[in-house]
Amino acid sequence: xxxxxxxxxxxxxxxxxxxxxxxxxxxxxxxxxxxxxxxxxxxxxxxxxxxxxxxxxxxxxxxxxxxxxxxxxxxxxxxxxxxxxxxxxxxxxxxxxxxxxxxxxxxxxxxxxxxxxxxxxxxxxxxxxxxxxxxxxxxxxxxxxxxxxxxxxxxxxxxxxxxxxxxxxxxxxxxxxxxxxxxxxxxxxxxxxxxxxxxxxxxxxxxxxxxxxxxxxxxxxxxxxxxxxxxxxxxxxxxxxxxxxxxxxxxxxxxxxxxxxxxxxxxxxxxxxxxxxxxxxxxxxxxxxxxxxxxxxxxxxxxxxxxxxxxxxxxxxxxxxxxxxxxxxxxxxxxxxxxxxxxxxxxxxxxxxxxxxxxxxxxxxxxxxxxxxxxxxxxxxxxxxxxxxxxxxxxxxxxxxxxxxxxxxxxxxxxxxxxxxxxxxxxxxxxxxxxxxxxxxxxxxxxxxxxxxxxxxxxxxxxxxxxxxxxxxxxxxxxxxxxxxxxxxxxxxxxxxxxxxxxxxxxxxxxxxxxxxxxxxxxxxxxxxxxxxxxxxxxxxxxxxxxxxxxxxxxxxxxxxxxxxxxxxxxxxxxxxxxxxxxxxxxxxxxxxxxxxxxxxxxxxxxxxxxxxxxxxxxxxxxxxxxxxxxxxxxxxxxxxxxxxxxxxxxxxxxxxxxxxx
Length: 662
Fold this sequence. Notes:
Layout: E1 46-52, E2 62-76, E3 83-90, H1 95-102, E4 106-107, E5 112-113, H2 114-119, E6 125-126, E7 131-132, H3 134-142, H4 164-176, E8 189-192, E9 194-200, E10 203-208, E11 230-233, E12 236-239, E13 245-248, E14 254-256, E15 264-268, H5 276-279, E16 290-298, E17 320-326, E18 330-340, E19 343-344, E20 352-357, E21 370-375, H6 377-380, H7 387-391, E22 399-408, E23 423-432, E24 441-451, E25 454-462, E26 472-476, E27 482-486, E28 497-501, E29 526-527, E30 533-539, E31 542-550, E32 562-573, E33 588-597, E34 614-619, H8 630-661
Parallel strand pairs: 1-14, 25-34
Antiparallel strand pairs: 1-9, 2-3, 2-8, 2-10, 4-5, 6-7, 10-11, 12-13, 15-16, 16-22, 17-21, 17-23, 18-19, 18-22, 20-21, 23-24, 25-30, 26-29, 26-31, 27-28, 31-32, 32-33
Helix pairs in contact: 1-4
């Protein structure tokens, strides 16, 4: 074997694909006072490799380590702070696979494969003398090659190819692991984020085998975005003949990861409130209302991942997709905008958006709903005209913000006082997660977001409790607008919607039954049916004023009740979809619903703190049927009193007339 010249102080300087900066051999380090720099010695059997995660990445990451080689006959330089000379000894366990990979990589400057160059150098390959040291050749020939620019060894944005070192690490990892990251060669050890001590000294190929952690990834399982393969060195401890030791650890034995565990979240951004806080606290709408959603996701780190900048090499195309899956009660109208941080992306250049029938969820409640796909393949592959191509980088770790507009349609599930049933919408992030198989898409669920719509009904009764058909009602919202209802005009039921008019609808002629044609609802007139009921379905929470504008035929039109009904849900924030850095979040669950009503002036409607969603309203045929207690009783006696006064006045007039005639 050949001792490498002291001028080569950067050995196997492979920058890890997911590494911010991976140091190289031979960088300066403080040595122990008194250490004899003339000593030639073998390092201690073990060293350390410290793997530092990305800030705020709480995912515990796991790696397989393959010990490709180790150092022998090490001597520091004259300063005692750097490696001066040493021998690299290839681990015979991997000799064959390393040479196989070298045969697949061409050195463009030499216009030949690495294997050919290696086998032509008798210092590292001499079959007759039993010399076969491929990693020694790699270290001596390419050890000073370092990667300092994004994307850390993946194809560059301008289409230029990988460095020799990146190709070597990637192709070797492909041979040692299968497409799902499982070992086809038995790894020599396992490492995790943090300090890994007592690692047998030498050079390692490290491949990430992390799976998503249930506790930190919203109860989902699957693959994280794994870092690209890394060739890294342990630290080295040297001891001279006087037993004085020094450890070389500056620039070796340390990795700073760029890999992240991407997340995706979603919230409702409009609601019933007037201020910003309450807008995010009212996830309820009337049928026909617009529902605005905002989706946020992080861009995975594609450091070291292949890239298809032309759109012609599908095998190298990075994947990044956002899926939005809606139940049938929600009609997705449009993808309004997509941002990366504060930069607005260009549709059909940076991304495409497709809205279609179908479902991605395994939950059957989404059957018949709408699937929206925002595909950012162009952006993450830095294709012509894209924001990433123009800026020269894919913003790894950047925040994607997608604004989507939907409508709550008449297929929506309607909640009442006994059962709160949400209309669900979920989002999923699809992304490349295996360095040597970028087209393999992992789908990361982002949780479900709920919106609600409510109902209550009126039961029209006679003084004797008999259901009454044909009573006419109008309903007014808190803004003073009268509601109208336009029924669906097609079989899918999506066109039924609430509307408003400014003035109270004019009552139709009194009738003893509700008309068969209910189109009068579009004019704001709601009739009680044969069972006496009229239902107001698909309303957002709030207070409504109900006005009877005409009684059934045969009942007094002079005493028509007007009263208020309040729909009041209780919400709590759904923390399962809340980002850790969010101070407020528009995703709420319904923890209960109260429907209450106020009385009218004649006690034809009884006040209730929780009427269960049904309000009994009475009609009378004469004032004598009015309740005799409370305000209505006072009103009744007032009417009788007025009649007595009027009768007394009549008698007085007659008395005066009689006196005049006498």
